[in-house]
Write a structure and sequence with these properties.
Structural class: alpha/beta
CATH class: Alpha Beta
Radius of gyration: 17 Å
CATH architecture: 3-Layer(aba) Sandwich
Strand order of the largest sheet: 1-9-8-7-6-5-2-3-4
Length: 250
């Protein structure tokens, strides 16, 4: 298991990093709200077009605007991808080349279909995403927490930690600093190859933040979450076992 330095944040300054967010579902919107609250400007996009985002950007306020997917990719110093794997083929790969990209997604066969390279454990989801976006500096974060826990646990006491994965040190540092500015502690959790520890059914997946882990999967929307410290998240990763991805149904 790789060394994981503790990247703590107590009182971080407001972030001036521009964020492009592709995907306006629950995770995309949750991150957009945190970014705007942290003083960051946001361009948000989805596959349905800018008109469909009118209510979202009105709620977010003056620091957010609707964009096309290509415009959001161009706008962001960091580009957040909150989209299914099937949507990667529609991304503007040339624009994203040399960009720092924060992927929030997971592999769900019920949605994505069966993907042999993932089922066979030849690749983590993050490694597959990197292969689909040549030249992009892929990092992984926010994929191991359910969307409604994000606003419940931001700036919690004690401060809740999220793992960050990546192969590019500079890109990972950018994302560590951003996530800290958004209101979370961070764990530098290793490379994209290590990111299975935060994938579904692993020791570091969503249930680790549950207030009631025993009933979380049967009633997760009712769960109000509980803070998870760096040490607690480290412990979850230390005891994690890679799941049988080929048997995954959801």
């Amino acid at each position: 298991m790789p060394h994981r330095p503790q990247d703590k944040n107590s009182e971080q300054p407001m972030s001036t990093t521009k964020i492009g967010i592709i995907g306006s579902g629950n995770i995309g919107q949750a991150i957009a709200r945190l970014a705007v609250a942290a003083g960051t400007t946001v361009a948000i996009a989805n596959s349905r077009g800018t008109a469909s985002l009118a209510d979202v950007v009105e709620e977010l306020g003056d620091n957010a605007h609707a964009a096309t997917v290509a415009e959001a990719a161009e706008y962001g110093d960091i580009v957040v991808l909150a989209i299914p794997l099937s949507a990667y083929s529609d991304l503007p790969t040339q624009v994203l080349a040399n960009k720092t990209v924060l992927s929030t997604g997971n592999y769900y066969p019920s949605r994505d279909g069966r993907i042999e390279v993932l089922d066979s454990l030849k690749s983590t989801t993050a490694q597959l995403e990197a292969s689909l976006l040549p030249g992009a500096r892929i990092t992984k974060a926010f994929n191991n927490i359910v969307a409604h826990h994000i606003p419940l646990l931001v700036n919690s006491a004690p401060r809740t930690a999220l793992p960050i994965y990546g192969d590019d040190l500079a890109a990972k540092t950018e994302v560590l600093e951003l996530v800290q500015a958004l209101g979370f502690d961070t764990v530098n959790a290793g490379t994209l190859a290590d990111s299975w520890r935060a994938e579904p059914e692993s020791g570091g997946y969503t249930h680790v933040y549950a207030q009631d882990p025993a009933n979380f999967y049967s009633a997760h929307l009712a769960d109000r979450g509980q803070p998870v410290t760096i040490a607690q998240l480290e412990e979850a990763f230390a005891t994690a076992h890679r799941s049988d991805v080929a048997a995954r149904q959801f």
